[in-house]
Amino acid sequence: MDRRGLETLLGQVARGDGTAFEQLYRATSAKLFGICLRLLRERSDAEDVLQEVYASIWRKAAQYDAALASPISWLAMIAHNKAIDRLRADSHARNALPIELVEDIPDGNANAHAAAELAGDKRQLEGCLGELEAQRRTLIRTAFFEGVTYEELAQRSGTPLGTVKSWIRRGLQQLRSCLER
Fold it and tell me: What does pTM read for this prediction?
């Protein structure tokens, strides 16, 4: 959805329009979820924060000012800030545990073996991505690393939605086969 469409939806949400809110969610949730997931790493945490993000958008839509930021930038800032707030809250909660429980706290740092294995997995994934046709590789990277929806990919590439979905599905099948070798 373009800037004007999002601005219109935000204006309608500011007036309490539930249908506009649902449309705004459909148009932006994948991107905002991607932001949350990149920062929080745990899918369940990202899902919780995304819910908080949209509750905040519902309450604060009237505060959006098109002169200060694009709608997607404003929405992304809310998602980013909520995810950072969750990270900080989790950090404080871990630091508030009694010293007797310190042995029960998992070490977030990977040991050398795990780090080497992760690096190998990353090299394998990059190699497999390199085997894909350039257009499929770009679509998959954009969809999964930037949180862009299939509809947005179709618009950006000027390709029919069904074709984009097929390319991504086939590309993922190729990746799976390559990674299983």
Answer: 0.53
